[in-house]
Specification:
Blueprint: H1 6-35, H2 38-47, E1 48-53, E2 60-61, E3 67-79, H3 89-96, H4 100-111, E4 125-131, H5 133-142, E5 149-159, H6 165-168, E6 171-173, H7 176-181, E7 190-192, H8 195-199, H9 201-205, E8 209-215, E9 221-224, E10 240-242, H10 246-255, E11 261-267, E12 272-279, H11 292-301, H12 310-313, H13 323-332, H14 366-372, H15 375-386, H16 395-408, H17 430-437, H18 461-472, E13 476-478, E14 483-486, E15 498-500, H19 505-521, E16 536-542, E17 550-557, E18 564-570, H20 580-593, H21 601-608, H22 615-618
Parallel strand pairs: 2-10
Antiparallel strand pairs: 1-8, 2-3, 3-4, 3-5, 6-7, 8-9, 10-14, 11-12, 11-18, 13-15, 16-17, 17-18
Helix pairs in contact: 10-20, 13-15, 13-19, 14-19
């Protein structure tokens, strides 16, 4: 064939054109039938109504089987825009007890693809949530008048007790980021936003089901498609048994009213958290129902910040509660022995009597130094460690050994409790100080305040309670946790694994002895429960540049075979013995005796009726 023939060239051009057109049509058909689902959705929506079946969210119980959180039926209004025909909008609004403007606002929000990425006019979209029983009954009765309107059943959280708001957390409607990150969620779904509801969201939420209903030519529901053969039933979420004792928890919240701070009690043998009070807190029932938004904003604007779980998110200088940890490091590093004695002259002599100290016998060894909370002893100990050139090459090497020991106690890093928003606190390393002082040849005297738990040292109440449990166990701890067990799922091994410090038990026995003497004859005499219960403890007074000092206490009991470890902090509570120790005493009485003996009722009344609020908050009330 002559390729110069014009008919040949024309046929080639026509062939290429036809091929291109065919390819374009094929691409468009692929897009319409495979990629773009709107026509399929439209076709399906004419024949079927796929109704989501929401699972029952897992319930929660306390360690003694008392129900804490359960579910109650609630109802959502769903709308399929393509099915909507003219109906009496005023009647619809009156039925739902909403204004006409509200109707248009909700309709606009539903159709806004930016705020509702999954919007489709062919599929049911959430229009209004959380109808009460009366509103549901009124709408159900008139539903035939409103084509394109459906009712979706779901459940809402309910609470047996007005306690534990910060531990339990709350659930709220998912945002677009949550929907983008997890295909499980669609607009109108709810998920955990804080507390256990967030940290155990996947366990609690369960699995959705679907019910496929058949429509007639007019869109009316005729029944199940193929008798429910293709339906999928929802799977309920896991029920959780918490380690919390609700009675102990409620009592701690009672004691901490009109105060800011935290109480944490841990079972040393397991790491289970028996009580976790963060004050102030809130009634979890406030963050349910149609008033959720209003109540949440009030809590968020509250100057006392009741939405912050200070037990895991609050960071404080530990003050003298840090001294048992210092003593253990000095013993483990062979800086001192149990019999090493240092003098005190009302303060640390090499630095002109600073930091100051109170009167007590001198010189003394570690046991009485802990009992009397001698500042000078631990200043001498830290200086001896940082200037030792037999064990360490220089001060940086010595300090990093000190820091590693503190980290082994659970300080300076997150403990990985099964709650969100945990802070790590702060334990500096040598590089931090080399940068601060602009030299690697800094001196122990520059940082002497950290020897008594001040300066740059920051800990959380949870870390202090965990350290108390570690001492009670004589050298190891379990990761603290609030979920004791799940109905159909074993607890994570993270919470059943022992974390060892590598420090000999004999060193812990010296520390335990000092903490026992602090209770019988030292700074913690206010928590002495002998002869019934032998308590070990340590007070702390933490300097606060913004107001009165913080009051701290940590301890455990009984001394041998301990059942409970505790940490208490009262912001602006001044001396540890003033407020933290009495609160610790009352919590111990509640734990061991389940009630407060008549002899301590006066103390309970004093604590409950004492208001300790920082001036910065009082000015904002």
């Amino acid at each position: 064939m002559n390729r110069k023939d014009p008919f040949f060239n024309r046929s080639v051009i026509i062939g290429i054109t036809i091929t291109l057109i065919a390819i374009v049509y094929m691409i468009q058909l692929f897009h319409l039938q495979i990629v773009n689902t709107s026509y399929r959705d439209f076709a399906d929506s004419n024949a079927f109504y796929k109704k989501t079946l929401y699972p029952s969210r897992g319930a929660m119980y306390d360690r003694n089987g008392k129900l804490l959180v359960y579910n109650q039926a609630t109802y959502d209004v769903m709308m399929v825009s393509k099915e909507m025909q003219d109906f009496d909008t005023i009647d619809f609004c009156n039925t739902l007890n909403i204004e006409l403007d509200t109707f248009f606002q909700l309709d606009s929000l539903m159709r806004d693809s930016r705020r509702n990425p999954g919007y489709s006019s062919y599929t049911p979209q959430p229009f209004m949530s959380k109808l009460d029983t009366r509103e549901y009954a009124s709408l159900q009765e008139k539903l035939y008048k409103f084509p394109g309107i459906y009712i979706q059943n779901r459940t809402e959280r309910q609470y047996k007790y007005p306690n534990m708001g910060l531990i339990l957390g709350y659930i709220a409607e998912v945002d677009k980021n949550t929907m983008a990150a997890d295909s499980y969620y669609a607009r109108g779904d709810f998920s955990g936003k804080s507390g256990i509801e967030l940290s155990h969201e996947e366990d609690l939420r369960g699995e959705k089901g679907v019910e496929i209903l058949l429509r007639d030519a007019h869109g009316r529901i005729q029944g199940k498609y193929e008798e429910g053969k293709h339906d999928k039933m929802p799977v309920s979420g896991q029920d959780l048994t918490l380690s919390i004792d609700i009675d102990l928890q409620a009592y701690g919240e009672y004691l901490m009213q009109n105060k800011i701070g935290s109480i944490i009690m841990i079972e040393p043998k397991t790491g289970e958290i028996l009580a976790m009070i963060a004050a102030p807190s809130y009634d979890p029932a406030l963050l349910t129902g149609r008033d959720f938004g209003k109540n949440f904003m009030e809590l968020a604007r509250d100057p006392y910040k009741p939405l912050i779980n200070r037990a895991v998110s609050g960071v404080y200088p530990p003050g003298s509660t840090f001294k048992p940890a210092q003593g253990l490091v000095f013993l483990a590093e062979d800086i001192i022995t149990a019999n090493t004695r240092y003098g005190c002259a009302g303060g640390y002599p090499p630095l002109g009597g600073r930091p100051r100290c109170h009167g007590h016998p001198t010189p003394l060894s570690l046991d009485p130094a802990l009992a009397t909370s001698c500042n000078s002893y631990f200043c001498y100990g830290l200086t001896a460690m940082l200037t030792n050139r037999t064990h360490y090459t220089d001060i940086n090497d010595a300090f990093d050994h000190w820091k590693d020991r503190m980290v082994s106690f659970g300080f300076g890093n997150k403990l990985n409790v099964d709650l969100p928003s945990e802070k790590r606190g702060f334990i500096p390393n040598s590089k931090f100080y080399s940068k601060v002082f602009n030299t690697e040849n800094w001196r122990a005297s520059y940082i002497i305040s950290i020897s008594i738990g001040q300066g740059e040292i920051l800990t959380t109440p949870l870390q202090l309670a965990n350290f108390s449990a570690l001492v009670a166990n004589r050298g190891y701890y379990f990761t603290p946790h609030v979920v004791k067990e799940m109905k159909d799922k074993p607890i994570d091994k993270t919470y059943t694994t022992k974390h060892y410090t590598g420090i000999a038990r004999e060193h812990f026995e010296v520390t335990v002895s000092g903490m026992a003497h602090a209770v019988t004859s030292g700074t913690c005499r206010g928590i002495n429960l002998e002869p019934e219960i032998e308590v070990c403890g340590k007070t702390g007074t933490s300097e606060n540049p913004h107001g009165d000092d913080h009051s701290l206490f940590l301890g455990f009991a009984p001394k041998d075979n301990p059942e409970v470890a505790i940490a208490v902090i009262v912001e602006n509570g001044r001396f540890g013995a003033s407020n933290a120790v009495p609160i610790g005493r009352l919590m111990m009485q509640k734990f061991f005796k389940d009630s407060i003996p008549p002899s301590d009722k006066w103390l309970e009344d004093r604590i409950v009726n004492t208001t300790i609020l920082p001036n910065i908050y009082q000015q904002n009330i």
